[in-house]
Amino acid sequence: MLRFIGLLLLQIFVMDQVYFLGYICPLVYMLFIVLYPVENNRWSFLLIAFMLGVIVDTFQDTGGAHAAAAVTLAFFRPVLLKLVYGQGYLTKNLKIIKSPIDRFLLLLALAVLLHHLVLFLLVYFNLSQILQVLQMTLYTGISTLFVAVVLFVLFGLRGRS
Amino acid sequence: MSLMTLALVFTIQSHSYHYNAFVHSTGNITGSFLSTRNHIYDYLNLADENERLRKENALLRMKSLSTGDTLLGDETTFLFSEDVPYRVFPARVIKNDYSKRDNFLTLDIGSEQGVKEDMGVITTDGIVGIIDISNKRFSRVISILNSEISLNAQIKGSNIIGSLTWDGKDPYIMSLVDVPRLAQVTKGDTIITGRQSTTFPPDVLIGTIKSAQLVENGSRYQIEVTLFNDMTDLGTAYVIKNRDKKALTIIDTLTVRNDE
After folding, report:
1. Farthest-apart Cα atoms in chain B, separation
2. Which pTM value belongs to this model?
3. Residues in B 29-58 with any Cβ partner in A closer than 8 A
4. Is A101 exposed, middle or buried (0-12, 13-18, 19+ CB in 10 A)?
5. Which end of chain B is more exposed for a tag (fewer CB within 10 A), N or C?
6. pLDDT tens by residue, B108-137
7. Residue, of A7 and B20, whose pLDDT is higher
Protein backbone atom coordinates (compact mmCIF):
# COMPACT_ATOMS: atom_id res chain seq x y z
CA MET A 1 0.00 0.00 0.00
CA LEU A 2 2.81 2.35 0.93
CA ARG A 3 4.56 1.44 -2.29
CA PHE A 4 1.37 2.05 -4.26
CA ILE A 5 0.96 5.60 -2.93
CA GLY A 6 4.68 6.34 -2.94
CA LEU A 7 5.23 5.34 -6.55
CA LEU A 8 2.05 7.09 -7.64
CA LEU A 9 3.06 10.38 -5.98
CA LEU A 10 6.57 10.03 -7.38
CA GLN A 11 5.08 9.48 -10.84
CA ILE A 12 2.69 12.42 -10.73
CA PHE A 13 4.76 15.00 -8.89
CA VAL A 14 8.26 14.27 -10.13
CA MET A 15 8.46 11.94 -13.13
CA ASP A 16 5.69 13.58 -15.17
CA GLN A 17 7.66 16.82 -15.01
CA VAL A 18 11.01 15.42 -16.07
CA TYR A 19 10.78 15.68 -19.88
CA PHE A 20 14.34 14.49 -20.44
CA LEU A 21 15.47 15.64 -23.93
CA GLY A 22 12.07 17.25 -24.32
CA TYR A 23 9.85 14.19 -24.45
CA ILE A 24 11.05 11.34 -22.22
CA CYS A 25 9.19 10.81 -18.95
CA PRO A 26 10.16 7.70 -16.93
CA LEU A 27 7.12 5.64 -15.95
CA VAL A 28 8.07 4.40 -12.51
CA TYR A 29 4.58 3.47 -11.34
CA MET A 30 4.81 0.15 -13.21
CA LEU A 31 7.43 -0.99 -10.68
CA PHE A 32 4.53 -1.61 -8.34
CA ILE A 33 3.13 -4.24 -10.67
CA VAL A 34 6.53 -5.87 -11.17
CA LEU A 35 7.21 -6.04 -7.43
CA TYR A 36 3.73 -7.14 -6.34
CA PRO A 37 3.94 -10.23 -4.09
CA VAL A 38 4.10 -13.48 -6.04
CA GLU A 39 1.49 -15.26 -3.94
CA ASN A 40 -1.59 -13.24 -4.67
CA ASN A 41 -5.21 -13.32 -5.53
CA ARG A 42 -5.18 -13.01 -9.28
CA TRP A 43 -8.32 -10.91 -9.43
CA SER A 44 -7.32 -8.39 -6.82
CA PHE A 45 -3.91 -8.09 -8.50
CA LEU A 46 -5.50 -7.32 -11.87
CA LEU A 47 -7.97 -4.94 -10.27
CA ILE A 48 -5.32 -3.01 -8.38
CA ALA A 49 -3.17 -2.76 -11.52
CA PHE A 50 -6.19 -1.41 -13.36
CA MET A 51 -6.86 1.17 -10.63
CA LEU A 52 -3.25 2.29 -10.70
CA GLY A 53 -3.40 2.70 -14.48
CA VAL A 54 -6.66 4.64 -14.39
CA ILE A 55 -5.28 7.07 -11.82
CA VAL A 56 -2.22 7.74 -13.98
CA ASP A 57 -4.56 8.08 -16.97
CA THR A 58 -6.60 10.82 -15.34
CA PHE A 59 -3.47 12.82 -14.67
CA GLN A 60 -2.05 12.42 -18.14
CA ASP A 61 -5.31 12.58 -20.13
CA THR A 62 -4.49 9.39 -21.98
CA GLY A 63 -7.99 7.91 -21.85
CA GLY A 64 -7.32 4.32 -20.81
CA ALA A 65 -3.90 3.58 -22.26
CA HIS A 66 -2.07 3.31 -18.94
CA ALA A 67 -4.84 1.17 -17.49
CA ALA A 68 -4.70 -1.18 -20.47
CA ALA A 69 -0.90 -1.41 -20.32
CA ALA A 70 -0.93 -2.01 -16.56
CA VAL A 71 -3.57 -4.75 -16.83
CA THR A 72 -1.65 -6.39 -19.67
CA LEU A 73 1.51 -6.40 -17.59
CA ALA A 74 -0.29 -7.79 -14.54
CA PHE A 75 -1.92 -10.45 -16.70
CA PHE A 76 1.31 -11.62 -18.29
CA ARG A 77 3.51 -11.32 -15.22
CA PRO A 78 3.23 -15.05 -14.32
CA VAL A 79 4.52 -15.85 -17.82
CA LEU A 80 7.45 -13.47 -17.38
CA LEU A 81 8.19 -14.93 -13.94
CA LYS A 82 8.19 -18.43 -15.37
CA LEU A 83 10.53 -17.27 -18.12
CA VAL A 84 12.98 -15.60 -15.77
CA TYR A 85 12.93 -17.78 -12.65
CA GLY A 86 12.12 -21.13 -14.18
CA GLN A 87 9.10 -23.37 -13.89
CA GLY A 88 9.14 -23.84 -10.13
CA TYR A 89 9.10 -20.23 -9.02
CA LEU A 90 5.88 -20.71 -7.08
CA THR A 91 7.28 -23.42 -4.86
CA LYS A 92 10.50 -21.55 -4.11
CA ASN A 93 8.79 -18.89 -2.00
CA LEU A 94 10.19 -16.21 -4.28
CA LYS A 95 10.72 -12.61 -3.18
CA ILE A 96 11.33 -10.66 -6.36
CA ILE A 97 13.17 -7.79 -4.73
CA LYS A 98 15.57 -10.22 -3.02
CA SER A 99 16.28 -12.31 -6.08
CA PRO A 100 19.72 -12.26 -7.81
CA ILE A 101 20.33 -8.92 -9.48
CA ASP A 102 20.75 -10.28 -13.03
CA ARG A 103 17.43 -12.15 -12.83
CA PHE A 104 15.74 -9.09 -11.40
CA LEU A 105 17.05 -6.82 -14.15
CA LEU A 106 15.99 -9.31 -16.83
CA LEU A 107 12.47 -9.43 -15.40
CA LEU A 108 12.37 -5.66 -15.17
CA ALA A 109 13.54 -5.19 -18.75
CA LEU A 110 10.95 -7.64 -20.11
CA ALA A 111 8.20 -6.04 -18.05
CA VAL A 112 9.18 -2.54 -19.17
CA LEU A 113 9.25 -3.62 -22.80
CA LEU A 114 5.79 -5.21 -22.63
CA HIS A 115 4.22 -2.39 -20.66
CA HIS A 116 5.66 0.46 -22.72
CA LEU A 117 4.95 -1.21 -26.03
CA VAL A 118 1.27 -1.67 -25.19
CA LEU A 119 1.10 1.83 -23.75
CA PHE A 120 2.60 3.66 -26.72
CA LEU A 121 0.69 1.55 -29.23
CA LEU A 122 -2.51 2.79 -27.56
CA VAL A 123 -1.28 6.35 -27.07
CA TYR A 124 -0.40 6.77 -30.76
CA PHE A 125 -3.23 4.48 -31.90
CA ASN A 126 -1.97 4.51 -35.44
CA LEU A 127 -0.05 1.68 -37.10
CA SER A 128 1.52 4.02 -39.63
CA GLN A 129 3.46 5.59 -36.76
CA ILE A 130 4.87 2.28 -35.60
CA LEU A 131 8.43 3.59 -35.87
CA GLN A 132 7.68 6.40 -33.47
CA VAL A 133 5.99 3.93 -31.13
CA LEU A 134 9.10 1.73 -31.11
CA GLN A 135 11.35 4.74 -30.65
CA MET A 136 9.33 6.03 -27.70
CA THR A 137 9.21 2.51 -26.21
CA LEU A 138 12.99 2.23 -26.44
CA TYR A 139 13.88 5.66 -25.06
CA THR A 140 11.24 5.82 -22.34
CA GLY A 141 12.02 2.20 -21.49
CA ILE A 142 15.69 2.99 -20.96
CA SER A 143 14.80 5.96 -18.76
CA THR A 144 12.34 3.89 -16.72
CA LEU A 145 14.97 1.17 -16.25
CA PHE A 146 17.51 3.76 -15.17
CA VAL A 147 15.18 5.33 -12.59
CA ALA A 148 14.12 1.87 -11.40
CA VAL A 149 17.74 0.88 -10.81
CA VAL A 150 18.37 4.14 -8.94
CA LEU A 151 15.33 3.50 -6.76
CA PHE A 152 16.44 -0.07 -6.27
CA VAL A 153 19.86 1.08 -5.11
CA LEU A 154 18.33 3.65 -2.80
CA PHE A 155 15.63 1.51 -1.20
CA GLY A 156 16.09 -2.06 -2.36
CA LEU A 157 19.50 -2.81 -0.86
CA ARG A 158 18.23 -2.22 2.62
CA GLY A 159 15.67 -4.92 2.05
CA ARG A 160 18.35 -7.38 0.91
CA SER A 161 20.71 -7.19 3.88
CA MET B 1 -10.25 -9.84 -19.23
CA SER B 2 -13.21 -7.56 -18.64
CA LEU B 3 -10.86 -4.98 -17.10
CA MET B 4 -8.78 -5.10 -20.25
CA THR B 5 -11.88 -4.53 -22.35
CA LEU B 6 -12.90 -1.61 -20.16
CA ALA B 7 -9.45 -0.05 -20.47
CA LEU B 8 -9.52 -0.50 -24.23
CA VAL B 9 -12.97 1.07 -24.46
CA PHE B 10 -11.68 4.09 -22.52
CA THR B 11 -8.70 4.36 -24.83
CA ILE B 12 -10.75 4.17 -28.00
CA GLN B 13 -13.19 6.73 -26.65
CA SER B 14 -10.35 9.07 -25.80
CA HIS B 15 -9.27 9.03 -29.43
CA SER B 16 -12.56 10.42 -30.69
CA TYR B 17 -13.27 14.09 -30.33
CA HIS B 18 -15.78 15.18 -27.67
CA TYR B 19 -16.61 11.70 -26.55
CA ASN B 20 -14.47 11.05 -23.52
CA ALA B 21 -16.27 12.20 -20.43
CA PHE B 22 -14.97 9.35 -18.29
CA VAL B 23 -11.27 9.48 -17.63
CA HIS B 24 -9.95 13.03 -17.76
CA SER B 25 -8.01 15.50 -15.67
CA THR B 26 -10.70 18.01 -14.70
CA GLY B 27 -12.17 16.22 -11.69
CA ASN B 28 -11.98 17.99 -8.36
CA ILE B 29 -9.45 15.62 -6.83
CA THR B 30 -7.24 15.30 -9.90
CA GLY B 31 -7.48 19.04 -10.46
CA SER B 32 -6.44 19.97 -6.96
CA PHE B 33 -3.50 17.55 -7.13
CA LEU B 34 -2.38 19.15 -10.39
CA SER B 35 -2.92 22.58 -8.88
CA THR B 36 -0.70 21.70 -5.92
CA ARG B 37 1.98 20.38 -8.22
CA ASN B 38 1.80 23.57 -10.20
CA HIS B 39 2.15 25.66 -7.05
CA ILE B 40 5.38 23.84 -6.26
CA TYR B 41 6.88 24.08 -9.73
CA ASP B 42 5.75 27.70 -10.14
CA TYR B 43 8.46 28.84 -7.77
CA LEU B 44 11.09 27.58 -10.17
CA ASN B 45 10.16 30.00 -12.93
CA LEU B 46 8.51 32.90 -11.16
CA ALA B 47 11.03 35.38 -12.52
CA ASP B 48 10.50 34.34 -16.14
CA GLU B 49 6.75 34.41 -15.78
CA ASN B 50 6.79 37.88 -14.21
CA GLU B 51 9.02 39.17 -16.96
CA ARG B 52 6.63 37.83 -19.58
CA LEU B 53 3.59 39.42 -17.92
CA ARG B 54 5.42 42.75 -17.55
CA LYS B 55 6.23 42.76 -21.24
CA GLU B 56 2.64 41.98 -22.12
CA ASN B 57 1.41 44.76 -19.82
CA ALA B 58 3.68 47.23 -21.52
CA LEU B 59 2.51 46.09 -24.94
CA LEU B 60 -1.16 46.41 -24.01
CA ARG B 61 -0.54 49.82 -22.48
CA MET B 62 1.03 50.99 -25.72
CA LYS B 63 -1.95 49.66 -27.67
CA SER B 64 -4.50 51.34 -25.43
CA LEU B 65 -2.58 54.62 -25.60
CA SER B 66 -2.61 54.56 -29.36
CA THR B 67 -6.32 53.73 -29.73
CA GLY B 68 -7.40 56.27 -27.12
CA ASP B 69 -9.04 55.49 -23.81
CA THR B 70 -12.64 56.25 -24.75
CA LEU B 71 -13.06 53.31 -27.07
CA LEU B 72 -14.44 50.77 -24.64
CA GLY B 73 -15.86 53.02 -21.94
CA ASP B 74 -14.31 53.14 -18.52
CA GLU B 75 -12.90 50.15 -16.83
CA THR B 76 -15.64 49.22 -14.38
CA THR B 77 -18.43 49.03 -16.91
CA PHE B 78 -16.12 47.34 -19.38
CA LEU B 79 -15.24 44.49 -17.04
CA PHE B 80 -18.82 43.48 -16.38
CA SER B 81 -20.30 44.40 -19.72
CA GLU B 82 -21.74 41.69 -21.91
CA ASP B 83 -21.45 44.04 -24.81
CA VAL B 84 -17.82 43.54 -25.84
CA PRO B 85 -17.30 41.18 -28.78
CA TYR B 86 -14.69 39.09 -26.98
CA ARG B 87 -14.43 38.48 -23.25
CA VAL B 88 -11.12 37.25 -21.90
CA PHE B 89 -10.68 35.12 -18.79
CA PRO B 90 -7.20 34.75 -17.31
CA ALA B 91 -6.18 31.24 -16.28
CA ARG B 92 -3.18 29.28 -15.13
CA VAL B 93 -2.03 26.22 -17.00
CA ILE B 94 -1.76 23.56 -14.30
CA LYS B 95 -0.94 20.69 -16.63
CA ASN B 96 0.71 20.78 -20.00
CA ASP B 97 1.61 17.92 -22.36
CA TYR B 98 3.54 18.14 -25.59
CA SER B 99 5.34 14.84 -25.96
CA LYS B 100 2.41 12.62 -26.91
CA ARG B 101 0.54 12.33 -30.17
CA ASP B 102 -2.64 13.78 -28.65
CA ASN B 103 -1.92 16.40 -26.06
CA PHE B 104 -4.21 18.08 -23.54
CA LEU B 105 -3.78 20.92 -21.07
CA THR B 106 -5.61 21.56 -17.83
CA LEU B 107 -6.58 25.07 -16.70
CA ASP B 108 -7.45 26.14 -13.17
CA ILE B 109 -10.73 27.82 -14.12
CA GLY B 110 -13.98 26.12 -15.04
CA SER B 111 -17.68 26.61 -15.62
CA GLU B 112 -18.00 28.54 -12.33
CA GLN B 113 -15.80 31.21 -13.89
CA GLY B 114 -17.76 31.17 -17.13
CA VAL B 115 -15.65 28.79 -19.19
CA LYS B 116 -17.62 26.69 -21.66
CA GLU B 117 -16.75 24.08 -24.24
CA ASP B 118 -15.34 25.20 -27.60
CA MET B 119 -13.93 28.48 -26.36
CA GLY B 120 -10.49 29.41 -27.66
CA VAL B 121 -7.37 29.55 -25.49
CA ILE B 122 -4.42 31.82 -26.27
CA THR B 123 -1.34 33.27 -24.61
CA THR B 124 0.54 36.50 -25.23
CA ASP B 125 2.48 34.89 -28.04
CA GLY B 126 -0.20 32.97 -29.85
CA ILE B 127 -2.85 30.30 -29.82
CA VAL B 128 -2.84 27.31 -27.47
CA GLY B 129 -5.97 25.28 -28.09
CA ILE B 130 -9.71 24.88 -27.62
CA ILE B 131 -11.66 24.06 -24.44
CA ASP B 132 -12.74 20.44 -24.56
CA ILE B 133 -14.29 19.66 -21.18
CA SER B 134 -15.20 22.29 -18.61
CA ASN B 135 -15.92 21.09 -15.13
CA LYS B 136 -16.87 23.19 -12.13
CA ARG B 137 -13.41 24.40 -11.16
CA PHE B 138 -11.11 23.08 -13.84
CA SER B 139 -11.23 22.70 -17.57
CA ARG B 140 -9.39 20.68 -20.16
CA VAL B 141 -7.99 22.12 -23.36
CA ILE B 142 -7.27 20.26 -26.58
CA SER B 143 -3.80 21.50 -27.38
CA ILE B 144 -3.03 22.59 -30.94
CA LEU B 145 -0.53 19.74 -30.66
CA ASN B 146 -3.27 17.14 -31.10
CA SER B 147 -4.22 15.02 -34.10
CA GLU B 148 -7.92 15.85 -33.63
CA ILE B 149 -7.47 19.56 -34.14
CA SER B 150 -7.57 21.46 -37.42
CA LEU B 151 -7.74 25.23 -37.23
CA ASN B 152 -8.64 27.85 -39.77
CA ALA B 153 -5.59 30.03 -40.39
CA GLN B 154 -4.47 32.55 -42.97
CA ILE B 155 -1.37 34.30 -44.22
CA LYS B 156 -1.20 37.81 -42.82
CA GLY B 157 -1.87 40.54 -45.34
CA SER B 158 -3.73 38.27 -47.74
CA ASN B 159 -6.94 36.30 -47.83
CA ILE B 160 -5.27 32.96 -48.38
CA ILE B 161 -6.57 30.43 -45.89
CA GLY B 162 -5.57 26.93 -44.95
CA SER B 163 -5.99 24.54 -42.09
CA LEU B 164 -3.42 24.16 -39.38
CA THR B 165 -2.56 20.62 -38.25
CA TRP B 166 0.17 18.89 -36.28
CA ASP B 167 2.09 15.85 -37.44
CA GLY B 168 3.03 14.72 -33.94
CA LYS B 169 6.77 15.22 -34.12
CA ASP B 170 8.12 18.64 -33.18
CA PRO B 171 6.22 20.75 -30.61
CA TYR B 172 7.60 23.93 -32.22
CA ILE B 173 6.46 23.17 -35.79
CA MET B 174 2.96 22.80 -37.23
CA SER B 175 1.83 22.49 -40.82
CA LEU B 176 -0.61 24.60 -42.79
CA VAL B 177 -2.28 22.41 -45.40
CA ASP B 178 -4.79 22.92 -48.22
CA VAL B 179 -3.23 26.18 -49.37
CA PRO B 180 -3.97 26.73 -53.09
CA ARG B 181 -1.10 26.42 -55.57
CA LEU B 182 -1.40 29.98 -56.87
CA ALA B 183 -1.05 31.54 -53.42
CA GLN B 184 1.86 33.85 -52.80
CA VAL B 185 3.89 32.03 -50.18
CA THR B 186 7.06 33.68 -48.93
CA LYS B 187 9.42 32.35 -46.32
CA GLY B 188 9.10 34.35 -43.10
CA ASP B 189 5.50 35.43 -43.69
CA THR B 190 3.31 35.57 -40.60
CA ILE B 191 0.43 33.14 -40.09
CA ILE B 192 -2.59 34.36 -38.13
CA THR B 193 -5.98 32.93 -37.21
CA GLY B 194 -8.50 33.16 -40.02
CA ARG B 195 -11.67 35.19 -40.15
CA GLN B 196 -13.76 32.06 -40.60
CA SER B 197 -12.96 30.88 -37.13
CA THR B 198 -15.70 31.47 -34.57
CA THR B 199 -13.51 30.20 -31.75
CA PHE B 200 -10.65 32.65 -32.03
CA PRO B 201 -10.72 36.35 -32.74
CA PRO B 202 -9.18 37.18 -36.13
CA ASP B 203 -5.52 38.22 -36.32
CA VAL B 204 -4.27 36.23 -33.34
CA LEU B 205 -0.65 35.37 -34.06
CA ILE B 206 0.31 31.76 -34.79
CA GLY B 207 3.76 31.59 -36.33
CA THR B 208 5.97 32.24 -39.34
CA ILE B 209 6.48 30.25 -42.54
CA LYS B 210 9.55 28.07 -42.29
CA SER B 211 9.33 26.22 -45.59
CA ALA B 212 6.75 25.29 -48.18
CA GLN B 213 6.40 22.53 -50.72
CA LEU B 214 3.84 21.53 -53.31
CA VAL B 215 1.99 18.28 -52.62
CA GLU B 216 -0.81 16.28 -54.29
CA ASN B 217 0.72 16.54 -57.79
CA GLY B 218 1.57 20.17 -57.23
CA SER B 219 -1.99 21.29 -56.66
CA ARG B 220 -1.59 22.45 -53.10
CA TYR B 221 1.03 23.83 -50.78
CA GLN B 222 2.01 22.21 -47.54
CA ILE B 223 3.63 24.86 -45.37
CA GLU B 224 5.75 24.29 -42.29
CA VAL B 225 5.00 26.89 -39.66
CA THR B 226 7.32 27.79 -36.79
CA LEU B 227 5.09 28.63 -33.83
CA PHE B 228 5.56 31.90 -31.94
CA ASN B 229 4.30 30.18 -28.84
CA ASP B 230 6.61 27.91 -26.93
CA MET B 231 4.11 25.13 -26.26
CA THR B 232 6.55 23.43 -23.90
CA ASP B 233 6.57 26.38 -21.52
CA LEU B 234 3.13 27.78 -20.73
CA GLY B 235 2.28 29.65 -17.55
CA THR B 236 -0.62 32.04 -17.99
CA ALA B 237 -3.25 31.56 -20.65
CA TYR B 238 -6.40 33.43 -21.64
CA VAL B 239 -9.73 31.84 -22.43
CA ILE B 240 -11.68 33.75 -25.05
CA LYS B 241 -15.45 33.93 -25.22
CA ASN B 242 -16.93 35.11 -28.48
CA ARG B 243 -20.18 37.00 -27.97
CA ASP B 244 -21.36 36.44 -31.53
CA LYS B 245 -20.49 32.76 -31.80
CA LYS B 246 -24.07 31.53 -31.54
CA ALA B 247 -25.34 34.02 -34.10
CA LEU B 248 -22.51 33.18 -36.50
CA THR B 249 -23.06 29.45 -36.15
CA ILE B 250 -26.78 29.83 -36.82
CA ILE B 251 -26.08 31.86 -39.95
CA ASP B 252 -23.62 29.22 -41.11
CA THR B 253 -26.08 26.38 -40.76
CA LEU B 254 -28.79 28.44 -42.48
CA THR B 255 -26.69 28.93 -45.60
CA VAL B 256 -25.84 25.24 -45.68
CA ARG B 257 -29.50 24.36 -45.57
CA ASN B 258 -30.28 26.76 -48.44
CA ASP B 259 -27.61 25.14 -50.56
CA GLU B 260 -29.20 21.74 -50.41
Report:
1. 67
2. 0.77
3. 30, 33-34, 37, 40-41
4. exposed
5. C
6. 898 888 888 889 999 888 899 999 888 888
7. A7
Q: Does B95 contact A at CB distance below 8 Å?
A: yes
The pLDDT confidence band at residue A160, using thresholds 50, 70 and 90, is: very low
Q: How much is the pLDDT for B81?
A: 57
**Stretch 33-52 of chain A: residues touching chain B, C-beta under 8 Å:** 46-47, 50
Query: Residue B25 in contact with residue B140, Cβ under 8 Å?
Result: yes
Cβ(B134)–Cβ(B117) under 8 Å? yes
Which of B11, B33, B169 shows the shortest C-beta gap to A65? Answer: B11
CB atoms A68 and B101 under 8 Å:
no
B168 in A contact zone (CB under 8 Å): yes
The more confident residue out of B5 and B235 is: B235
| d(C-alpha B36, C-alpha B49), whole Å | 18
Domain B48-243 matching CATH 2.40.10.340: the answer reads: yes
The domain spans of chain B are 6-44, 48-243
Q: Do B97 and A57 touch (CB under 8 A)?
A: no
ipTM of the complex: 0.73
User: Distance of alpha carbon B79 from its chain centroid, rounded?
Assistant: 23
A61 to B25: CB separation less than 8 angstroms, yes or no: yes
The 10s digit of each residue's pLDDT in A101-128 is 888 889 899 999 999 999 988 888 777 8
Alpha-carbon distance B195 to nearest alpha carbon in chain A (angstroms):
31
pLDDT of residue B129: 92
Burial A36-69 (b: 16+ CB within 10 A, else e): bebeeeeeebbebbbebbbbbbbbbbbbbbbbbb
Asked if residue A54 lies in contact with residue B23, where contact means CB atoms within 8 angstroms, the answer is: yes
pLDDT digits (tens, 9 = 90+) for A5-63: 888 888 888 877 777 777 788 898 988 898 888 878 888 888 888 889 888 888 888 87
- Whether residue A64 contacts residue B10, with contact meaning beta carbons closer than 8 Å, is answered with yes
Picking from A9, A33, A61 by the largest number of B CB atoms within 10 A of its own CB, the best residue to mutate is: A61
**Residue whose C-alpha is closest to residue A92's, from A156, A36, A38, A43:** A38
Q: What is the DSSP string of A117-134?
A: HHHHHHHH--GGGHHHHH
